[in-house]
Structures are given as structure tokens and as C-alpha cells.
Design brief:
Rossmann fold, homodimer, about 280 residues, about 50% helix
């Protein structure tokens, strides 16, 4: 029942009739707020109460908590229940699901790319998912009808759904999301407090994502550590290339590397415009 | 008579009476456009015609051209003329001025932090400098009254003027402008074309400045190579720190490094808001 969990139950309330949404939070104060705000049909006080009658269970907690949550809910799940989540990395979730959930239930991974810099149930919005991309992940052992049902759920809530394996997901999002976050943080940390106030809008934009909450990001980086470490290595290689060209005053090589980045980004922006992902 | 040069002469036309602005470009087509647009009182066809009656000469060309331009204009300058420029790095400009300009004229460095992603005289605006920060640079041998006159010129054109040495300028702007540009380019170059379209707004913002023109940036990086190489080294060090913490799954260290970046950036944004440099 954080921002994303409560936004999902709110969207379910708005989008479906004949569906009962049941929310749980381990914090009493969050459960009280969720009840006052009416973001779900019912807010319950325990995991067994939340999951024992569920057709689909959606985890919207830090990925590091999934291991214990799977263990805790396992004995209370009905056969055939679909379990999914909204975590930003997918490999470990699939592994833990296989290890801790009973064979009679079906785990499918989900990553709706939606959020806000605000946090907490009080910022939940029933339109947070509208137009968002949602990646749904499966392995060779994922139940096909559970996979189809999970994709339909997100599509019905307004998402543009794409599917891939958890391995592919974590490799791609290390590159386009996790490593950029790390790079922005490294850039800020490399800037001396004495000089930083001379920064203009270029620096402000380049470093924007470094303002994300560190506990959420530590969770993401910890659960995708190998891909992130490899991706940081690739950024360091590119920085070393530019450093060598600059130190050698090799104008052609500097211009070539900068032109390569400019052309690649121009293609990205063109794609985003065409697919209407940017206004 | 590019975007910045023509914007300066346009601002002079608007701001002063009794001042004659004379423009020059080595391109005939640019001179014709500048005449048609009326961005200066007069557009002349040669450097001697441009500088021989000037009280103040402003170079608005790539920094790498200053060496030859100083040499070419030197025999035609009247004693007491102030020479300045609008280059994004200042060390080499001061060095070349000392080497090639006669002792009877006064060089002062300027760096108005204003520009546009557009280029060319046709995009000149007489309000481009309004509210911009302009750094004016001097060394131990800079003439005090020429320095004061140069600061007054930019202030009269609407800039918020700050002064420092060229050495300090190039060190600071390597950190807050040149190295961020290099980092953004390295990040884009490290991303595979196959995956880049999964990038969201975070990546788009982090990489924005990598879309700058490579010839302008190659000029900046070449003329501030030592500071840039050192600054890239500091970013690599910070990336190595984060890489080690992530590879070791050291949650406390990851969170500590991310929190440090977040706090530093929060202070920067607070400063920008207070000084009204961000809306």
C-alpha cells in the first residue's frame, strides 16, 4: 500500500466491476491511511487474510523483501493463484518464487515503468499506470495461461505491455536505467561542493536522477548487481577512451566519439517521438 | 556573427546610443545575412576594417581560432583597445593574448553563459544575454580599468557578472560543464543500440547534453584538456567505488554513496531556487 501498490488497487477499483481488491501493509499507520482514503475494497491486518482467497497477488514492496514474503504467504495460497510483483529487477524474484512458492501456484514477473518522486499511499493515483510501459517476464516453466492473464491485467489497467525473459529484462534495464542512475550519482559525487553552485541547466539535467531515494535504488542495484557492475565497466571504458583522446589532444577522435553519442541519442529521441513516449 | 556574436551586437544596438557596432565574418554568406537582418550598425569585409577603429573587440569564434585571429588583428589595433571574447575556456585565450597582442592593448577574458541549441546569425536574439551569468577573467597583469570596463559592458547588457582568474575558471567549468558533457557522451556510447529504445525519461534527461554539436565541444575539451582529463579521472574513481560496493553487495556502502549524491544535489537545487537561476 505504498504509492505504486495503492495506485494499482485504485486503478482496479476504477477499471473493473466484480473484482474485490484487498490491501495489506505491515505498518498499522499505512493501513489506517489506506482505509481512510478508500484506495481498496478492504484493508486487512495480516498476510494470510490478504492472500488466502486471492486469484492474483501483487507484491509492491522492495525486491529484497520478496524472499520472506513468498515464504510467509506460501502455506496460505489456493492452488491456481497467480503471484506477480512490480519490482524493477526480475531475476531474483523468479528464482525466489521457484524456491519458496508451492508448485500449485503460478508466478509471473511484472515491471510497470511508472512511479513518482513522491512516496506513500497518500500520493496514490488511479491513473498512474495509464500509458505506462509494463514489462511482463516469463521463463521456460512459466504457466502460459497465468502469463496471458497477467498481461491482460496490465493492459486492462492502461499499460502498454511488452514481454521478455527475466534475464533479458535485467540486462536491458541495467543499461538504460540502473547504470545511468549510478553514473549520475558518480558525477555528483565527483563534483566539489565549493564549485557545484556554478553548475548550469546541463548539470542539473544530467544529475536529476541522482535525487532518487537511496533505499529504493540500493534495493534495485543489489538485486541486479552483476549486470550493473558490468555496465559500470562499459561506461568506465568509454570514459577512458574520451580521456585518452582529450589528454592526447586528438581532435578527430574527440569529435568522432562525441558525434557517435549525438547520433545515437538523436535516433533514440526520434523513436520516442514516433512512439509518442515523449511529448 | 554567429548566434552569440550577432546576439551581442543586437543587444548593443538595443542597449546603447552613441555606440557603433561593427561586425565581421569570414563567410561572405554570413555577412550578407547579417546585413539583411540588421544585427549590427555595419558589417565589414575584413579584419583590419573591423578592428582598426574599435574601442573594444569581441571575439565570438571557436577558441582554437583565437591564436591566428590575435596574430592577424595585432598590427591594426589602436593603443588602449580592449580585446575580449566569449569562449567557454579562458586559460589559452589569456596565454595567446599575452603572446600575440601588442603591449599597448588590453586583453580581458569573458565567458557569458548563454547560448542555444540553434546556430547561426538568423537565430540571434537581442535578449539572449538578459539574466545570464557572465564570468570575466583577469590575471596579475590585466589592466584594471579595462577589466572594470569589460565587467560594465556585460552588466549593461543584462548579465550577472562574476570575476575570477582564467585558471580558476577552467578548473570550475571542467567540473560543472565539460566533464558532465563527457560523462553524458560516455553513457550514451556505452549503451547498445539494440536496448536503447527501452530508455525512459531518466536516461533522456541524463544524456540530453550529449546532443550538443561535436565541433563546439571538441574545441572546448581541446582547450581545457588537463582539467578535463583530471575530472574524468575523478568520475571514474567514483564509478569504481560504486562498482566495488555493488559487486560486493555492500548495501550500506551503496546507500551511503547514493545518499551523498542526493544530498549534494538537493543543496544545489536549493541554491538555484534561492538565486532564481531555476524556475
Amino acid at each position: 500500500m505504498g504509492l505504486l501498490g495503492a495506485s494499482i488497487t485504485s486503478a482496479i477499483l476504477r477499471s473493473f466491476s466484480g473484482v474485490k481488491s484487498v490491501g495489506f501493509s505491515h505498518r498499522d499507520s499505512t493501513r489506517q491511511k489506506a482505509r481512510q482514503l478508500g484506495v481498496a475494497d478492504q484493508i486487512v491486518d495480516s498476510i494470510p487474510d490478504c492472500v488466502s482467497d486471492a486469484d492474483i497477488v501483487i507484491l509492491a514492496t522492495p525486491i529484497c523483501t520478496f524472499e520472506n514474503l513468498f515464504r510467509e504467504m506460501a502455506p496460505h495460497l489456493q492452488p491456481g493463484t497467480i503471484i506477480t510483483d512490480v519490482g524493477s529487477t526480475k531475476n531474483l524474484a523468479h528464482k525466489w518464487a521457484k524456491k519458496y512458492l508451492p508448485g500449485s501456484v503460478h508466478y509471473v514477473g511484472s515491471h510497470p515503468i511508472a512511479g513518482s518522486e513522491q512516496r506513500g499511499v497518500e500520493f496514490a493515483r488511479d491513473d498512474l499506470l495509464a500509458g505506462a510501459v509494463c514489462i511482463v517476464t516469463k521463463t521456460a516453466t512459466t504457466d502460459p495461461s497465468a502469463f496471458a492473464a497477467t498481461k491482460k491485467l496490465w493492459a486492462d489497467l492502461g499499460c502498454s505491455v511488452k514481454s521478455m525473459s527475466p534475464v533479458e529484462h535485467d540486462r536491458i534495464f541495467a543499461e538504460v536505467s540502473h547504470v545511468p542512475h549510478i553514473t549520475a550519482a558518480a558525477l555528483v559525487n565527483a563534483t566539489s561542493p565549493k564549485n557545484i553552485n556554478y553548475a548550469g541547466t546541463g548539470f542539473v539535467d544530467t544529475s536529476r536522477i541522482a535525487s532518487g531515494p537511496e533505499n529504493v535504488w540500493a534495493d534495485i542495484l543489489l538485486t541486479n548487481s552483476a549486470n550493473c557492475a558490468a555496465g559500470i565497466g562499459r561506461v568506465i571504458n568509454q570514459l577512458e577512451k574520451l580521456k585518452a583522446a582529450i589528454a592526447a589532444k586528438d581532435e578527430k577522435m574527440i569529435a568522432k566519439l562525441l558525434a557517435q553519442a549525438r547520433a545515437k541519442r538523436a535516433k533514440l529521441i526520434e523513436h520516442k517521438m514516433k512512439s509518442r513516449e515523449l511529448l
